[in-house]
């Protein structure tokens, strides 16, 4: 790819320059905390292995060099197959363990375009913006080889909240329309190779330089809701907050380091269940699924009535965590929740309940 074409593609990726006040304030600090929330791409997976350096490393290196008087700490809270529902859970860890100054959110290839995903994405954005550290939030929109991206509603949310929004997806579409080969960017259907990660990083670096070249915005306040923030008060109920029978507590870093523990069903048990009582309007459940029949299904009972099935087998699973929106009520009330495993001859791994 010729240098002028590359420079244009990078420059054109800035979709919304947003309000720059929070970013400027973050970069004035002597110690700056960077948080990356996304899926396997942001984790650095190229389809076969984790790369030695990915776009999050390039951005961190750029900031360290440009602002050499400051210290930059990188926290990559991404995991394979994660979408904005799991992002809601990540925010609890961010609040407890990290005081972020800049947050990058990347879920455009893993999110779907239904109403629930729109609500979870806007709720996630508001949760990040509302953290006590008042971080700058940067939205990153990527694309698959089939040209799938859920950036449409994400762009509108970014505009509404005045956020820096970078559409690598738009630049890739334009390049592909003009004869660019996908294989330069990626070795599979989704995951960027080293060239692709360098390109994403250059798009983000360019956006910072363009945004910071403007005069400083005088103020920023989180605006009114655009679609819905129904899940903005999401709260995690981990294995330490529930009662269980037929399970044993496990450490589960293989499911993403921000899931510190879970419950694994004991082999040979006649019955296995997890339960808790709490006040909520919406219930979520995080568990492990796979495309084989390795994991059993489980039924969710609320106040003694079966309300949902958690599918242990899914064409989208490969032994990874999925977070399912189980049910939403009109108002928040106290409920008793029980998860019952159907087939105790198989496996089942419970990660957490989430309520809002």
How are the secondary structure elements laid out?
Blueprint: H1 3-11, E1 14-16, H2 21-27, E2 31-38, H3 40-43, H4 55-66, E3 71-76, H5 84-97, E4 102-106, H6 115-129, E5 136-141, H7 151-161, E6 164-167, H8 168-177, H9 182-185, H10 194-212, E7 235-238, E8 243-245, E9 247-251, E10 261-265, E11 273-290, E12 298-302, E13 305-310, E14 318-341, E15 349-355
Parallel strand pairs: 2-3, 2-4, 4-5, 5-6
Antiparallel strand pairs: 1-6, 7-15, 8-11, 9-10, 10-15, 11-14, 11-15, 12-13, 12-14
Describe it.
- There is one protein chain.
- The chain has 356 residues and is an alpha+beta fold.
- Helix 4 packs parallel to helix 10 and helix 5 (84-97) packs parallel to helix 6.
- Strand 5 (136-141), helix 7 (151-161) and strand 6 (164-167) form a beta-alpha-beta unit.
- The mean pLDDT is 94.
- The protein is globular.
- The strands form two sheets. Strands 7, 8, 9, 10, 11, 12, 13, 14 and 15 form a nine-stranded antiparallel beta sheet that branches.
- The chain has two domains: 3-212, Rossmann fold; 235-355, Sandwich (Jelly Rolls), CATH 2.60.120.
- It contains ten helices and 15 strands.
- The longest helix has 19 residues, at 194-212.
């Amino acid at each position: 790819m010729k240098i002028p074409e590359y420079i244009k593609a990078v420059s054109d990726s800035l979709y919304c320059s947003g309000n720059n006040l929070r970013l400027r304030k973050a970069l004035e600090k002597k110690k700056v905390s960077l948080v990356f929330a996304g899926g396997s791409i942001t984790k650095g997976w190229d389809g076969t292995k984790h790369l030695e350096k990915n776009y999050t490393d390039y951005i961190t290196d750029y900031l360290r060099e440009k602002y050499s008087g400051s210290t930059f700490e990188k926290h990559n809270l991404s995991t394979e197959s994660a979408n904005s529902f799991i992002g809601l859970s990540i925010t609890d860890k961010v609040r407890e363990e990290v005081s972020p100054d800049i947050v990058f959110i990347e879920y455009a290839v893993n999110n779907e375009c239904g109403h629930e995903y729109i609500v979870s994405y806007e709720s996630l954005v508001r949760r990040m913006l509302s953290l006590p550290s008042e971080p700058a939030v940067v939205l990153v929109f990527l694309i698959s080889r089939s040209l799938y991206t859920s950036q449409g509603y994400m762009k509108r949310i970014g505009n509404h909240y005045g956020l820096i929004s970078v559409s690598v997806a738009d630049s890739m579409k334009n390049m592909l329309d003009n004869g660019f080969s996908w294989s330069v960017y990626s070795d599979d259907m989704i995951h960027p190779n080293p060239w692709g990660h360098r390109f994403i990083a250059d798009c983000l670096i360019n956006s910072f330089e363009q945004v910071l070249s403007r005069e400083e915005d005088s103020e920023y306040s989180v605006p009114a809701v655009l679609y819905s923030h129904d899940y903005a008060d999401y709260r995690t109920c981990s294995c330490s907050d529930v009662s269980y029978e037929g399970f044993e507590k496990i450490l589960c870093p293989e499911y993403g380091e921000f899931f510190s523990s879970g419950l694994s069903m004991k082999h040979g048990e006649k019955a296995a269940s997890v339960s808790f009582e709490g006040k909520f309007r919406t219930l979520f459940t995080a568990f492990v699924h796979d495309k084989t029949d390795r994991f059993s299904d489980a039924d969710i009972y609320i106040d003694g009535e079966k309300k949902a099935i958690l599918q242990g087998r899914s064409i989208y699973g490969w032994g990874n965590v999925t977070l399912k929106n189980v049910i939403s009520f009109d108002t928040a009330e106290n409920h008793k929740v029980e998860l019952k495993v159907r087939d105790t001859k198989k496996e089942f791994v419970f990660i957490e309940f989430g309520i809002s």
